[in-house]
Amino acid sequence: xxxxxxxxxxxxxxxxxxxxxxxxxxxxxxxxxxxxxxxxxxxxxxxxxxxxxxxxxxxxxxxxxxxxxxxxxxxxxxxxxxxxxxxxxxxxxxxxxxxxxxxxxxxxxxxxxxxxxxxxxxxxxxxxxxxxxxxxxxxxxxxxxxxxxxxxxxxxxxxxxxxxxxxxxxxxxxxxxxxxxxxxxxxxxxxxxxxxxxxxxxxxxxxxxxxxxxxxxxxxxxxxxxxxxxxxxxxxxxxxxxxxxx
Length: 246
Ligand SMILES: [Zn+2]
Hints:
alpha/beta, Metallo-beta-lactamase, Chain A, 7-stranded mixed β-sheet, 25% helix, 30% strand, binds zinc ion
């Protein structure tokens, strides 16, 4: 599978970075993890077939992870009328809000025969001929609202997206699977805690490579570089348009 990072900023975009968005190409299909960027523009820029997009997955309901879904779904609804997509939300209220916004702005309901809005729970597993995706609950939004990391498997390779985690990692929601399995790539946010909060977890991490994204404030880029040679796995900083091939 190939993962292209279309948005690597934290909750606020910068001149160089869109908000969280990753495109996964596996088999003949395209999947998205979060949509903080304009999906349609990024696909067109790269010459990708829009009808190859099969699923949009989200890690949680914050706007910097879902606003791109509104535009993309709206266009599938009224313009790209031969296309179908599944959109996976983590909360029914966010799904309903997107549905209602499309109705209010376009005047027509989301066509459920082509556009499926699905609200997942922690036991959700997506599987087709290309990928398997499962959820790792985390505490980014506390106990009141759900939030997840996503484990994506394709062709024997595994990539884990941390999602957003708890402030200061105080809820100890660093994915336990990283100490148990040799995951090929771990994509970790770095907005809600510092490298020093992660050190005990990095010491037990068996991932083959770690990629930092969602980094804030900018001073943490230097913190990442300072530890980048301390581990047996590679430590990297993601920028928009970076690709990982697994
Ligand atoms: Zn968030």
